[in-house]
Structures are given as structure tokens and as C-alpha cells.
Amino acid sequence: MQTPSPERHDGSYRLLFSHPRMVEDLLRGYLPEVVGAGDLEKGNGVYLSDRLERREQDLVWRLHGPEGPLYLLLEFQSEPDPRMDLRSSVYSGLFLQDLIRSGEISRSAVDLPPVLCVVLYNGPGRWTESPDAPFRLIDVSRAPLPSDPDNLVRLLFELERSRTSDELEEPIERLSRLLTGPEHADLRRAFLAFLKESLLPGRFPGARISAIIGLEEIRPMLRHTVMEWTREWKSDGQREGESRFLLRQLELKFGAIRSSDRARIDAADSETRLRWAERILTARSLDEVFAS
Question: Structure pTM?
Fold first, then answer.
């Protein structure tokens, strides 16, 4: 199994942030100035330009407050986009035009409702936001975590930042506790889909993730997988066995391995191979595995 595509990862985020609780916790944790702006209502993220060209925003939420509506446009990015300033301005303008066209905003209105574009970025490199950018950037890997330990967006970011099975277990346990009860069933399924389809396949190539049907089953699976990896590594104690085990794990995650990388593995000592094997859990590319 190879690393899930950015499209699948972004899709899991769209599913998660289709739930009001996730948006509420996002606002409380990262946009406190918007908290209390009003009740949340999911809006239509598909709209047309004046030339009837279809445009699609990842997610749109409407906040109904005493001073009128505020619109929140959520965009999910897996890599920096140097044109995001332009894109977010265009999205906001076209979105307001569509509201006027549909009659939700009067054509004679002087004051248009505020539109806040928020970009959730989950890429490996840094994305530096300019001070006057027309959007708010939240870097999943680097933004300070909300102080509330039960904030679901904090738990999502903790899962994303995890580097070992031990680091995954604690936020998963908190998720299981917070999302008990039938009223949380949909959000619980959304987190399970994120873990099964996006996060865990990249962390644990070869693990039987598809068989998991509940959050409570993930922690035992993590322990079993790590134990199996350790047992197999130790049983293949000779040089050839170590190389074979490492190659198999790399191929499960990244696909075919170049002959030059095979030669590098064969030439490495046991300590170096073990260090590379540990990096497989978090690396997004072969270059990250072999980095000195």
C-alpha cells in the first residue's frame, strides 16, 4: 500500500469539516474573534461565474449573527500555492456575486456581508503567509495547538503530528471518549474514515487497516503491528534478512525502489538500516527516509 494521495487526504478533511462541531472547535482554537458570531449553517460551495463557469470551494459555512451573516470559506491544501492570494480574492468575489444572483443578497445592498477565507495547510514544507494576505493560513503541522485538550481540531492536529504508535494512542483514546453516544455517530465515522483512508496507511504500510470497524480497535492494531515489525526485524538478524525486510516495507509504502537505493541499503550497517526503518512511519518520500 502506498502513501494515500493528496486528493484522498483533502477529501477526508472535507468530510470532517462538514460537521458543525469541527468548525466550532476550529473557530474557538484559531479564530477567537469569530466565536459568538452566530449559529452555523452549512452553505453551498458550488457557484457560477458571470460566464456560467462552475467554481467549487472546498466548504462554505454561514454564521448567522445579530449584525447579519458572516461567510466562512474553508480551503484544504497539501502544498503551498503562490497564487492563493489571487485565488482567495477571486473565490470571495465570485461567491458574493452568486449570492446576489440568487437573491440572498439584495442587488441594492451597499454593505456586503464579510467573507473569511481560511486555508488549512498540511504539507511537509513551510508556507509563509504574507501579512496582508486576503486569507487566514492554519498550518496543521506547525500552528500552536489550542489549550483545550478536548478540542477536536487539536486532536486532529495531534494525530497528524504523531511520529510513533505511542503518540497516536493517546489522542485516539481521547477521541473514543469524546465521541461516544449516538449523537456523535457521524463525526465518529468521519474520524475513522480519516484514520483508515488517510493517516494510518501512510504510517503503517502492510497493516490490516481495512478490517478496523471502530476507533476502539485501532490501538490494539497499532501494538500488534509494531510487535510484528520488531519480531520480524529481529528474526531477520543477518545482513541479507535486514535488507529484505527494509526493502519490503519501503515498497509497500512508496512502490518500486530504484537499483541505486537497493545498493545503498545493501551497503549500510545494521544501525543505519534500523534508523531508516523507523523513519518509514513518518517519511513522505524516499529522500526523507535516507536523509542524513
Answer: 0.73
